[in-house]
């Protein structure tokens, strides 16, 4: 099936997701099967996910997009273009990119680079985030190979020009902002599946491959990649942010599902972090060091992923509760029972209302738990009945379950598009999204206390939780041009983060740090941990060119 057709159906789900897809609609994504290999060897001729004959329209040769002189369009670094009261602006410094570097990038990338203002602006403003920066990238490059990435990074390091790696543009904490200008490295054209090893249940991919496209590719082989973050996320960005998703309760996070990486360091050197063996005790665990480093240590150019067999059978169940605490208590009790659920998702009544509005549904607008059970048919149904009994002991009602594939797919589709559904209630607002995670025993108290604050606020706030592993999101809708809204959204977010930290939790369970969560790291990790991170950063990136201003607070010194 053509990826362009698949994306066309998906983008109908919401205005926001449509905007994201429109940014990349100039490229037709067509899935092409790669050669399948066995244990003996990998395929030596990578096959493209994208048709090699197509280039983004933004990269078409024209006087505007590929001129080697900066455009005369207004720059976001001009003070007049920033309303500090209306926007969350990340400060930075800016220096003009040397003409010599522009010439070097042109020689490396040929037509796959742009100085076009619109394209630079789109790459400098995350599509799903309220975070903004005083500057945008000066140049956007689209490498096609690891060799090109190495040369680009080496040139930028030589000229001491900042680099910002760019994946699927789905991150929400300002990871891809360019507060200091510089070069944005868009990895979207590096989307090969390099090798599939069916008997080893692993696959080697380039960073621009999307997780949804990858799973469509793997389906004929009876395999899938078990992480499911937001639609549109790519494997490289998923590694960089150490993401997870609703299936993490069973399969773990990104750090548990990556076998090895290839990474271009700040000086252009290419490092392979591990072999393809499922386990190894050889040296420092460089793979885990890079996962979650958010582009501050290097640019990921290849990923070897652990795969899983597609479950033989699955059941999706839903149950309603009078309060979110009752729902959270059932999630905890289910995990303590020893049942190996693959998903446990909690939605409050406001989020269910948003789903009803966005999808024309009539689901009961009460706190709801969604479960998925997998295995054989008999085992899945047995688990369902056990959880139904647990739910009944905690005020659960209207326990229903689905076995039909289309019904199950539709239920999870509504859950995955929860953010877009919220915008159906306030189309012109933006969303501040919390991402706290606590030990499982603390989840019910955290959600209960947070819910009291959220319900008392004038802002529309919804609650979603990956309840099986203690990860909790609040989606706070606010008018970015309303100072009172902005302050109230910040207050609610601070409340939830500090409450989670008081419970030995974290400010971010899966979204990463970027610029938005840096202010909480000292309280969570301590200054010595941050100093250690800074030493690692300084050793690998002495010129501080790799995504500067992210992850590590600027006041940390050693």
UniProtKB/TrEMBL annotation:
Annotated protein name in UniProt: D-lactate dehydrogenase (cytochrome)
| One GO CC annotation | mitochondrion
The record's section on InterPro entries has:
FAD-bd_oxidored_4_C (IPR004113), FAD-bd_PCMH (IPR016166), FAD-bd_PCMH-like_sf (IPR036318), FAD-bd_PCMH_sub2 (IPR016169), FAD-linked_Oxase-like_C (IPR016164), Oxid_FAD_bind_N (IPR006094), Vanillyl_alc_oxidase_C-sub2 (IPR016171)
Q: Which family does it belong to?
A: Belongs to the FAD-binding oxidoreductase/transferase type 4 family.
Q: What is its main location?
A: mitochondrion
Q: Which keywords label this protein?
A: FAD, Flavoprotein, Mitochondrion, Oxidoreductase, Transit peptide
Q: Name one GO molecular function term.
A: FAD binding
Q: Which cofactor does it need?
A: FAD
Q: Which PANTHER family match?
A: D-LACTATE DEHYDROGENASE, D-LACTATE DEHYDROGENASE, MITOCHONDRIAL-RELATED
Q: Does the keyword Flavoprotein apply?
A: yes
Look up keyword RNA-binding and say if it applies.
Answer: no
Domain FAD-binding PCMH-type, residue spans: 133-310
Q: Where does the record say this protein resides? A: Mitochondrion
Q: What is its EC number?
A: 1.1.2.4
């Amino acid at each position: 099936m053509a990826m362009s057709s698949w994306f066309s159906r998906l983008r109908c789900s919401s205005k926001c997701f449509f905007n994201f897809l429109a940014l990349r609609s100039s490229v037709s994504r067509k899935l092409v099967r790669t050669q399948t290999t066995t244990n003996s060897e990998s395929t030596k001729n990578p096959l493209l996910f994208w048709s090699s004959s197509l280039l983004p329209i933004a990269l078409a040769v024209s006087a505007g997009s590929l001129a080697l002189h900066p455009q005369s369009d207004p720059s976001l670094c001009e003070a007049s273009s920033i309303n500090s009261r209306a926007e969350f602006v990340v400060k930075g410094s800016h220096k003009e990119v040397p003409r010599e570097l522009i010439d070097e990038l042109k020689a490396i990338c040929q037509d796959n680079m742009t100085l076009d203002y619109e394209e630079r602006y789109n790459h400098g403003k995350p599509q799903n985030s309220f975070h903004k920066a005083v500057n945008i990238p000066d140049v956007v490059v689209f490498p096609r190979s690891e060799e090109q990435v190495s040369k680009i990074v080496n040139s930028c390091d030589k000229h001491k020009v900042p680099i910002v790696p760019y994946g699927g543009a789905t991150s929400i904490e300002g990871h891809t902002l360019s507060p200091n200008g510089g070069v944005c490295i868009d990895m979207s054209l590096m989307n090969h599946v390099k090798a599939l090893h069916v008997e080893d249940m692993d696959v080697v991919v380039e960073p621009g491959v999307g997780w949804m496209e990858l799973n469509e590719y793997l389906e004929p082989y009876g395999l899938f990649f078990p992480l499911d973050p937001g639609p549109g996320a790519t494997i490289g960005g998923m590694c960089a942010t150490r993401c997870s998703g609703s299936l993490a309760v069973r399969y773990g996070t990104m750090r548990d599902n990556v076998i090895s990486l290839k990474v271009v360091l700040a000086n252009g050197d290419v490092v392979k972090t591990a072999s393809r063996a499922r386990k190894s005790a050889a040296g420092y665990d460089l793979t885990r060091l890079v996962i979650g480093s958010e582009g501050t240590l290097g640019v990921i150019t290849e990923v070897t992923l652990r795969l899983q067999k597609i479950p033989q059978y699955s059941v999706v169940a839903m149950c309603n509760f009078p309060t979110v605490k009752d729902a959270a208590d059932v999630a905890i009790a289910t995990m303590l029972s020893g049942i190996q659920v693959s998903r446990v998702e909690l939605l409050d009544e406001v989020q269910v209302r948003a789903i009803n509005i966005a999808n024309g549904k009539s689901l009961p607008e009460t706190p709801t738990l969604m479960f998925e059970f997998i295995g054989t048919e008999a085992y899945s149904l047995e688990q369902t009945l056990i959880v139904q009994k647990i739910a009944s002991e905690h005020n659960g009602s209207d326990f229903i379950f689905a076995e039909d594939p289309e019904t199950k797919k539709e239920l999870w589709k509504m859950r995955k598009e929860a953010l877009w559904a919220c915008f159906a209630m306030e189309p012109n607002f933006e969303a501040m999204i919390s991402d706290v995670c606590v030990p499982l025993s603390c989840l019910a108290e955290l959600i209960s206390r947070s819910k009291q604050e959220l319900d008392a606020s004038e802002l529309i706030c919804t609650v979603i939780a990956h309840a099986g592993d203690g990860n909790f999101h609040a989606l706070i809708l606010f008018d970015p041009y309303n100072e009172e809204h902005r302050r109230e959204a910040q207050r609610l977010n601070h409340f939830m983060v500090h409450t989670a930290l008081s419970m030995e939790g974290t400010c971010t369970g899966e979204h990463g740090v970027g610029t938005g969560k840096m202010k909480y790291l000292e309280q969570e990790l301590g200054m010595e941990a941050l100093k250690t991170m800074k030493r690692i950063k300084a050793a690998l990136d002495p010129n501080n060119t790799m995504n500067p201003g992210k992850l590590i607070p600027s006041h940390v010194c050693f």
